[in-house]
Structures are given as C-alpha cells and as structure tokens.
Specification:
Distance between the termini: 93 Å
Radius of gyration: 32 Å
Low-confidence stretches: none
Number of domains: 4
Shape: extended
Number of strands: 10
Strand content: 5-15%
Mean pLDDT: 85
Strand order of the largest sheet: 8-5-6-7-9
C-alpha cells in the first residue's frame, strides 16, 4: 500500500499513452515545420503541420491529464488516502527538478502554441488553403482565380475581408464545407451567387473607389469568322464608365448605378438573379421611381413581400475572378496572341467545335481534342498538315490548355454554369433591366438604347481600314434588321455559329 501511495499518479497506461502520443506529435511538428520552411508550399503539408498534428498533440496532453484523474479516482476507491491537493516540496531535489522541467516545458509549449496558432491563422487565410486543400470541388475556382485579373488579391480579401467577426463566420461556414467534402456531399457545380458573401462596400471598395470619375475608355473587340480563312473582325467602342459624386460635381455613365447618392434595389425571381421583376430607384433628391417588368409572373403583393437586394458592384461584376471564358472568345484571344495559327484552314471553326462538346472527363477531352484536330487537317488538308506540323501541334496544345482552364467536367462547370453580367454578349447582362420592358406607373421606361453605355468608333473586317469618325450604330455582319428587337445572347452562345 505504501508503494502505491509513493508511486506517481502518472504511472498508469492512459497517462503513459498520452505522453507517448504528445512526444511523437511534438517531434513531428518540429520536423514538419522544418520541411514547411525549407521546401515549396504544399497545401496538405500546411494543414498537417498547423492543424492536424497540433490537434493530436492536444489529444495526447488531455489523455495524460485524464489518466491522472482516473488513477487518482481508482486509488481512492481502493482505500488509499491521498491529499486533497498535490504536495510540492521544493526542498526535495526530485520534486524541485520535476517542477523546473514542468515550468520549462510549459513555457516552451506556450511559445510553440502561440507560434503554431499564428501560423495556423495565416495558413487558413492562404490562397493554397482556400483553393488547393479541397482539391476536387475547388479546382475550377482555383484554376480560374490564378488566371484572373485578381490573381494577386488573396481569396480572403473578397470572401472574408477585414475584421474578426467575418473571419469567425467564414470558419464556421467552412466547417460544414469540410464535412461536405469529406462525405462527398458537395454540389456539382458549386452554386452561385454566394448567399453569405460579404457586401461589396466592405470588400471591393477597399481598393476600387466608386466616387472616382472615369472618362470614356477605349475598348477593342477582336473576333474571327468561322470561314476557311478565319477572317478577322474588329470593333472599337468608347465605354462610358463614369462614376463620381455630388461633391465632385460629376455623376454619370455606367458607374452612376454605384454612385453613393443613388440607391437602386430590385427583386429577382430566380436564384441566379437573371430575371429582374422589379426595380426601385431613389435618387439623391429622395425621388423614388418603381419599375415593373411587363412579363413578370410575380403579383404586386408578392413583390411587396419579396426580399429586395441593394444593387452593388457584384450585380454587374459578378464574375470578377472566377471567369470561365466561352470557347469562341477564348479562341479569338488565342488567335490574336498567335498561340493558335490563323493560317490553318477553318482553325476557328474546328477549335471552337471541339471545345464546345461535352465530355465525361478532362482526360477524355484532351485526348479527343488532339485526335480530332489532327485528323481534320491530315485528312482534309494533307499538304498543309505536312508543311505546318509544328503549327498544328502548337495550336492543338493551346486548345487543350484552353479546355483545362475553362471547362471542368468532373465538377460540371463551364461558361454556361455561371452567367456573366458584364456586358450582354452571351447572357442578358445589362438587358436584365435595360430592355424597354421595365415600366413605371407614370410610363417611364428603363431604356435599351446602346448609347447610354457606349459609343461606336469604328468597325473593320479582314484588311479594311477603321472608320475615321464615330458611327451612330453598330453594323452587324449579318443583317438582323432592327437590332433593338433582339439581344446578342439570342444568337451568341459561346459555341460555333
């Protein structure tokens, strides 16, 4: 009995197992930190170093403490008399050394915990953690992000923003997302728009200033026809960006919508906010105008009770980063850059065709693109294929890369999945409201006039010269009659024409 009293409470299997687990975890943490510092970044190494292994270390410590309590309770039940609190006699060398080691170990553990917590915080805010840890569901988003205009802006800059409250909210939301990934219950594709996205005023406007007035900006559109020569076409526009504030004395153009003196709210009847049934405009003088869509299926009482969204940057710039370029636009850009050789017969038509098809997997798409493009030129134009084999190979490789960066069969994601509201070429975009179909009670109409947002400077086809003076209207390559009666998206789908 005396030996039992003298023996340390830590001499039990549970505490000893906890000590062993803690020592192994601590050794692994030190080794993994060394690897993390000296090697290239790896998302799985980071989550292992700063999240998983530290959690195992904490489990080991908790097991050790639980073992002490369990052993104390066991001895008391056995009739062993134990003091209410541990006796610490610093006059005894063994006890003194134990205290010294415990204090030193506690300080080291505290410092390591602070360092680990700091690193874990920054790691969970890193782009690799956001985009590469959950590999399958985030592959489309991360790939598009790295090729986007915001590739130098961290994921958390838009999805979290500054402040502790949104950081905590994002991690709570991420807990369910982690469960969805582990249980393979995540949706394919990831739905948009994001419901709990932080308001643009607290994220986008940390860099972009809506009160800054911009004059008209030149925009050049390069297109190529689907004929044998892939004939180039070009259109030049002046985009009336605008903006400003009452203090600056300038508030006009497209960014009038985002002028802080104007308040626009609307009601959409679909999840992706493509069908706008109601628009309310309150100007800086406090005047209110309400517009109702002629073809709206919502009754007035439904509109009155519906959730109304305050218009912000994201309502037009809804794909500022995760951009999935349509096949014909992606090929046009490659033809301008020269990475696809325009001298190859029907190169625009053929590349857009193979990019537009639906495939079961990325690998199937890459293999089919290479096989079918080479087969077309080798069979239809054997002389061209033989003389321009290097150009064919380069064009094929570019087409395969376009597919890898814009279409993701495994997640059912492509340009059709997420409508892009900038402009109105492939989707309704501006025409969601500016369609001549939204009318107020006193007869005002949200106009569809093209010149509200831009003026045409000139057009050219093939080797012809640009017009020297601004044109009143755009001339379509195919006579469509009254262009105000149709929208671009009625015909332009991103696929072959």
């Amino acid at each position: 009995m005396a030996d039992t009293v003298k023996r340390s409470l830590a001499r039990n299997l549970i505490s000893e197992a906890g000590v062993l687990i803690a020592i192994i975890a601590l050794a692994n943490i030190i080794f993994l930190i060394y690897i993390d510092v000296t090697s290239a970044e790896n998302p799985y190494l980071g989550i292992l170093t700063y999240v998983i292994v530290p959690a195992i270390l904490v489990v080991g410590i908790l097991l050790f403490l639980f073992g002490l309590l369990w052993e104390r309770r066991r001895r008391r039940r056995a009739g062993v008399e134990l003091p209410e609190y541990p006796e610490i006699n610093l006059n005894v060398r063994r006890v003194r050394n134990t205290v010294y080691i415990s204090v030193f170990g506690g300080v080291v553990f505290l410092l390591v915990s602070v360092l680990g917590s700091y690193r874990a915080y920054h790691y969970t805010d890193s782009d690799q953690f956001c985009g590469a840890t959950c590999h399958t569901p985030m592959t489309p988003e991360y790939t598009a992000y790295k090729l986007s205009p915001h590739a130098r802006v961290g994921c958390v800059g838009c999805h979290v923003g500054p402040g502790a409250s949104w950081y905590v909210r994002s991690k709570l939301s991420g807990a369910y997302q982690l469960y969805a990934v582990l249980s393979n219950k995540f949706p394919r594709p990831i739905p948009t728009p994001v419901k709990n996205l932080r308001p643009a005023q607290q994220t986008c406007e940390q860099c972009h200033w809506p009160e800054k007035f911009w004059g008209a900006q030149l925009k050049v559109f390069n297109h190529f026809a689907y004929d044998e020569a892939s004939t180039p076409r070009q259109a030049q526009l002046l985009i009336k960006t605008g903006g400003g504030s009452a203090q600056a004395g300038l508030n006009a153009g497209i960014h009038w919508h985002m002028n802080i003196a104007n308040e626009i709210t609307y009601v959409a009847s679909d999840e992706q906010r493509q069908n706008i049934d109601y628009v309310k405009i309150k100007d800086r003088a406090g005047r209110v105008t309400e517009y109702f869509a002629k073809e709206s299926k919502l009754k007035p009482e439904q509109i009155a009770a519906a959730e109304k969204r305050r218009m912000d940057c994201i309502d037009c710039h809804n794909r500022p980063t995760h951009i999935y370029t349509p096949p014909d636009r992606a090929v046009d850009r490659a033809l301008v850059a020269g990475t696809i050789d325009r001298t190859l017969p029907f190169v625009k038509a053929q590349t857009v065709d193979v990019l537009s098809r639906d495939y079961k997997s990325t690998q199937e798409a890459v293999d089919t693109i290479g096989r079918d493009l080479r087969a077309f030129w080798s069979q239809k134009y054997p002389a061209v294929f033989a003389s321009k084999r290097a150009a064919v190979d380069r064009s094929v490789a570019t087409t395969q890369n376009i597919f890898r960066s814009t279409r993701f069969p495994e997640m059912k994601v492509d340009w059709r999945t997420h409508p892009d509201n900038i402009g109105h070429f492939y989707f309704k975009g501006c025409f969601r409201c500016h369609d001549n179909e939204h009318v107020s009670k006193d007869g005002k109409v949200i106009s569809k006039d093209c010149h509200i947002c831009h003026d045409f400077l000139g057009q050219a086809e093939g080797g012809t010269a640009m017009f020297a003076i601004p044109k009143k209207d755009f001339t379509h390559p195919v006579d469509l009659g009254d262009l105000t009666a149709v929208t671009c998206a009625d015909c332009h789908t991103g696929k072959s024409m």
